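Chain X:
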Amino acid sequence: MNHGIGQFTELPQAALACLSMAPGNQMTNTQEQDYLISLLHELRQLPHETEWVEFKHNNDNPEEIGEYISALANSAVLCGKSNAYLVWGIDNATHDIIGTTVKPTQIKKGNEELEAWLLRLLSPRVHFRFIEFQVDNQPIAMMEISRAANQPVQFQGIEYVRIGSYKKKLKDYPEKTRELWRLFDVTPFEQLVAAEAVDGATVLQLLDYPAYFKLLSTPLPETRDGILTRLSDELMIRKRTDGRWDILNLGAILFAADLSNFRQLARKAVRVIEYDGTGRIHTKREHLEPKGYAAGFENLIRFLKGILPENEVIGQALRKTVPMYPELAIRELVANVIIHQDFSITGAGPMVEVFGGRLEITNPGIPLMDTDRFLDTPPRSRNEALASFLRRIGICEERGSGVDKVVFQTEYYQLPAPLFEVTEQHTRAVLFAHKSFSEMNKDDRIRACYLHACLQFVQRQQMTNSTLRTRLGIDEKNRAQVSRVINDTVDAGRIRPSNPESDSRRHASYVPYWA
């Protein structure tokens, strides 16, 4: 059985019982089997023309499977479902269990495994998993498909949708297209459903609700209903018309007792990896923070502090032994990767990597602004409800001040300037261990000069040779060294003189190129 990452659907009560019995809320293989059987029975009871579920007997045509992934992922959005399902071994007309010979994990397209082939032809990539199990001695195969996230899912360049029980091209139904885009625009990640139709006791089992009240310094209500009402008021859970509850992504991602209980969010847990040396060849230790971001933040920072080296600070700060990297900078950068990640990118989450001489903090998703403007531009967050709550409990700084504080801290402790870079699907911030001026290369010096000019500018001041000397810890007698750094940074197009008409070089001041 492939225990990939997925997401809870509407859980039948038998499956909830299995969940509650598992140590640490982790389902064993037997409990997973019971859950799947219960889920299958729930799906079989649905009407025959259900747009987010398709039953098949033995059809294993790869092209048709790919088209169904597109159609079902898009239809799940229209139906308000977290997942859709393609099930082999069920009669489509009667919903009777008839068994199947299909084994999706063994299907190949040419020389390529089916899963890899499908992922290559889906755009954007949507998460799915294959599951094989038995019911009443009959083999069943199931594909669990996550709903489309920010845009309709295509297969081989074509978008599909379900109309009743039929698979159709989305372009032929413009009203469905309009409705899909409306839902993408109005439904933020935080308000999507992480677990559907659970009872109140299970809500309190899956969420670390005491942490919520502790972080807000609010008394814990005396009754379960009082707790549920408060979480509902925060839009972390939502009551259904049948009296049960949906746990929303906001509640799960912030206060999950264990993120692995929410299949779609399990890979969003923050991972810390410490390496031996400067490369990724040898791993010394690894930590995956299981709790939601708010509930587990302090434990995550505590673990990081425990593995980071220390440094003797000399200069602007008092001479003392402190962590190699300022705690405030680490807290702010970790909070940033949590807040600004793109949750539509599946299979990846925030990661902190500790190397000899540097610390890299990475989140899935490219930033919504140019990295050059991190200091002066108010941040635009994909996840405003998440960001707002973390600001309320003091995990991150007020809007627009985070990166400023990171740069200030690195200057105060006279560390090399941080590096902000963007890869194809990720954003990375890098903190560097202490280097003397002579150990810095040209790029290090230009980056330090540019970010110093940015920090001065947002503080309504201007960079001069004197301010940069102080930042770099260079004596007045070596001001010529700093002049060369300024000239190199001007030549690189990163800064410019604040008054180009002035002939004075000794008293010249500089601003970022964009100022």
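Chain Y:
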Amino acid sequence: MQGVSDPDSIWSAEQAAAASADFAELYVAHGGVLWVAFDPGLARCGLFFCRDGVVRELTPPGFSVRSRVYEYGGGACCTTDQGAAFVNERDQQIYHLLMTGAVGAASAANLADSREIAAEAECRPAAPTNIEPQALTDRVNCRYGDLSFVPAWQALLAVEESHEAGAVVHRLVRIGLTGHRQVLIEGADFYAAPVADSTGQRLAWIEWDRPYQPWVATRLCQRESGERTRVLAGQGSDQALQQPRFDAQGRLWVLSDKAGWWQPWCVDGQAQPQGAPCDHAPAPWQLGGRTYLPLENGEFLLTRFEQGVGILLVGAAEPFPERQLAENFTRFRSLGADASHFYCLAAAPDRLPAVLAIGRSDGTVRLLAGGDQPLAEEQLSRPQPLTCVAGKGERCHGFFYAPIGEPARPPLVVFLHGGPTSACYPVFDPRIAFWTLRGFAVLDLNYRGSSGYGRSYRLRLAGGWGELEVEDILAAIEALAGEGRIDPQRVFVRGGSAGGFSALRALAELPQLRGGASLYGVSDPLALRRVTHKFEADYLDWLIGDPQQDAERYRSRTPLLQADRIRAPVIFFQGALDAVVVPSQTETMVEALRSRDLPVEYHLFVEERHGFRQAANLAEALRAEHAFYRRLI
């Protein structure tokens, strides 16, 4: 098998693990830009602020900015008039951090000297601050997320998750900067995206009830002073809504997929979708999404997916003439703006995630943080869009990465994302670079049920999980083999969580596979259903069916019960602290395969939960998986 002669000298497992650093939750305030950055070396998320070309960390030692509402979190910070509020990972309480020299949430950053994309970030690091955050909440049984600040109230809006007497209750609450808590809205099973207008008189939010997920059916609700709650959209189960926003004129907007795609709709105006028929947001697994932004001049800053590729645009709502921005990037999140610049978190096929400042007048892009290009062009495999016909003539999508050196008919590793209602994106993935430098081709598969391709594609997985993605894996393998791009006898499948379930299902159904990997993967859906958290309590019934009425479907799709059909070797990775897929579930699957003398490896990481975060463990898992496959080819 070909590849580069010494891949470890170019891109080692340790370098790939370190490159899993990322950004989240950008805000524009106080004459600068604030964001959250994840450091895999420390396994913590810090709050950073950039102003006048200087970056400083705001979170002191012992704090990490991360919410665990709905287990997946999001919306863990926001700016206030005096500083920033954030959720501390360890205790899940809200803290307020005063910022020296804060100049008001509406102040514009004056970022001059805009130039073309630089090789390095233009904000210089400064020493961390020593400001001690002040606790605003002290409710040990509660978690908080989806924070937003209402200047008219001088208070925060938040989703509160209360674990009380064996039940989990969600509410919308108001938290004053003095710590006073007030329950605003309760009664629904779930809440998200609370937002108030500039006067503080009008409150809007998203809510939904079991058995639905937020990408299946939600409601847009509103309450004005002195009035009862009104449902503005989503009375039935025909649409999912997300990200309500008030524009400068006080009109309420929302993303709705009623027309088949998550598009902006003006609730207070003509009830028609705006923009192109594309998804303008991914599935809301996490709180705090901001993928479109009404601007003060009646225009919009927004991102959308075109065949899985993200683009960033600015334009008017009607008739929506558009101008594309930051064309070298292919995924955009957490949009913001001031008088002179647009801001976002962005990713591209050739560089690490970045914080961008984009000139409003000329579109010039600056890197405020991140954005390093760790590999030379000749060492980099770029994503190639792949579409093929799967079961019933339907199409599935993905991105193919050829190995470096272009060996004839190389082995293939199929990446299966989690969720399963999630997606992969055509951006630099340090793990994919690790494989392609070692002579492996990679297919990052957006099987039917992935988000980013419209409502019908996303909902196609209902009742079909464990079958549809296997059909799509087979269709993609056959398409790539038919074009001579891979060796169909040397194909491996791997995935984490729900992707691990799909990998095990593929190994049971596709005997031509050479091997696979399950990272904290689901091997017993019914066992998962018994212990899973409230947010996903009904998800398996939607994905597979009712356990009683569809018992045979569960039996035929449970990897543990189909272990005798798996003929290829498997490597497993598990976190000892995982409360979603508990270690005993994975260990039972391991023993079922070992009892048949099948080559199996099992790696348990004692300090990891569901989804590995520590750089040393990420590197060890990558090395072990590569060594495992090498022995099989």
